[in-house]
Specification:
nine-stranded mixed beta sheet, Sacchrp_dh_NADP-bd
């Protein structure tokens, strides 16, 4: 396997640090618009293993599909791993196909809200552009594996596992994510600094969140999707491992668009523990128009308001030393168990920032996202996972993934997941 990873930000950097410990690939090329940043990631990865020579750096413009394809051909990539934010999904996705390579991402092509009824009808959904080209990938005999980060990604693996191993009937697949993370300044005071891309946070939190319900669609998958206003239906969810109760709200996310395609359930939702401060900031940005991606002219210079907001905040890759606490990603499944009795089960994965910083020099949010595509690549490399076309993690066997993730090193990745039955 020869991997071309596009993106050397926080997640890409963490993925390289995780991957260097594994032997399943022949070459790993780190490509970024900023060559120095790619070189820094290569140096960090190779420094973790004596004699490591599989990593190299390259420059690429992720917005240019032809440039991505040319680099993929040049480095003889068998797999293109997209580690940049979702606005670049389609050029990387298209470039990988043009280069006859397989593809993985952690977020899907962007949605476009319905022009007339944004909170009642779904417009272009997350991933629609990619799924529309599934036939091309099938004809080429290549695989595009979408949404294989942590959320989406691990939660989608949990969904398949729950359907296969735990439930006879699923009432709801409810992704529920929360954390008790705080970031402090040099004086020990709490400060605002998002744990991942502010550009992406604005995109997914201010877009109308999508819900899927069987009763709305009958036998038609597409008719089962509908939208709600941002921050709808708040609920307090109790997260494990000392995180505790966190208020969660609906957020637009890929799981809702992926799970119903392969897993039988009556309802699919995604809720995230944003917190009052983040919700207030997002509402203010929207009120001021600072969430817009449309360029405005400032003293003769064209700038996107959202890009300016993101640029004014700390790089998520740099805040690890000032972060403390844990982050939890998981799936709450309700329905009827294999024994015919009602069942409610939370499948989850918790990462302590102190652990990820100590072991990998990566803050927990980006590290938790990065480990899952590396596990997936290893399963693809040894043939445990395979397929053609455009697929989500739900389309592939879950147990090998969960076993490899949790198994102690060096056999596995040493990152156990948990399961709680709740009443």
């Amino acid at each position: 396997m020869r991997v071309l990873m596009v993106g050397a930000g926080g997640v890409g950097d963490a993925a390289a640090r995780i991957a260097v410990e594994r032997d399943f690939f022949e070459a790993w090329v780190v490509a970024d618009y900023d060559l120095a940043r790619a070189e820094s990631t290569v140096a960090a990865a190779t420094g973790r293993r004596t004699g490591e020579q599989r990593f190299t750096a390259a420059r690429v413009d992720a917005s240019d599909a032809d440039a991505v394809a040319a680099l993929a051909r040049e480095v003889r990539a068998t797999h293109v791993f997209n580690a940049v934010d979702p606005r670049f999904v389609m050029p990387i996705f298209s470039g990988a196909l043009a280069a006859d390579a397989n593809y993985l991402d952690m977020a899907m092509s962007l949605s476009v809200r319905h022009p007339d009824k944004p909170y009642e009808q779904v417009g272009v959904k997350l991933g629609d552009e990619q799924f529309a080209r599934a036939g091309e990938w099938e004809s080429a005999g290549r695989l595009a594996l979408l949404g294989i980060g942590v959320e989406p990604g691990l939660s989608d693996v949990f969904a398949r596992y729950a359907a296969d191993e735990l439930f006879d009937h699923i009432d709801e697949l409810g992704t529920r994510d929360g954390a008790n993370l705080v970031i402090r300044d040099d004086d020990g005071n709490e400060v605002f600094a998002p744990g991942f891309s502010m550009w992406t946070i604005i995109e997914e939190c201010l877009n109308p969140p999508v819900v899927w319900e069987r009763e709305r669609g009958g036998g038609d998958l597409e008719k089962g999707f509908f939208t709600l206003p941002p921050f709808s239906e708040p609920e307090v969810f109790d997260f494990p491992d000392g995180i505790g109760p966190v208020e969660c709200v609906h957020v637009e996310h890929e799981e809702v668009l992926l799970m119903p395609r392969w897993v039988d359930a009556d309802r699919v939702t995604f809720k995230y523990g944003l917190g009052e401060e983040m919700i207030g900031i997002l509402r203010t940005l929207h009120t001021l128009g600072l969430d817009s991606t449309e360029p405005v002219t400032v003293k003769g210079v064209q700038v996107s308001p959202r890009d300016v907001v993101a640029a004014c905040l700390p790089d998520p890759a740099t805040i690890g030393p000032r972060m403390e606490g844990k982050t939890c990603a998981g799936l709450f499944v309700t329905g009827t168990g294999k024994d015919g009795a009602p069942r409610s089960t939370y499948l989850y994965h918790v990462v302590d920032n102190a652990d990820s910083m100590r072991d990998y020099g990566a803050q927990c949010v980006v590290w938790q996202t990065a480990i899952n595509p590396v596990v997936a690549l290893e399963l693809l490399a040894d043939g445990t996972w395979s397929g053609t076309g455009v697929l989500g993690p739900e389309a592939l066997p879950p147990k090998p993934f969960l076993d490899l993730l949790a198994a102690p090193k060096p056999e596995g990745y040493g990152s156990p997941w948990g399961m709680e039955d709740r009443t």
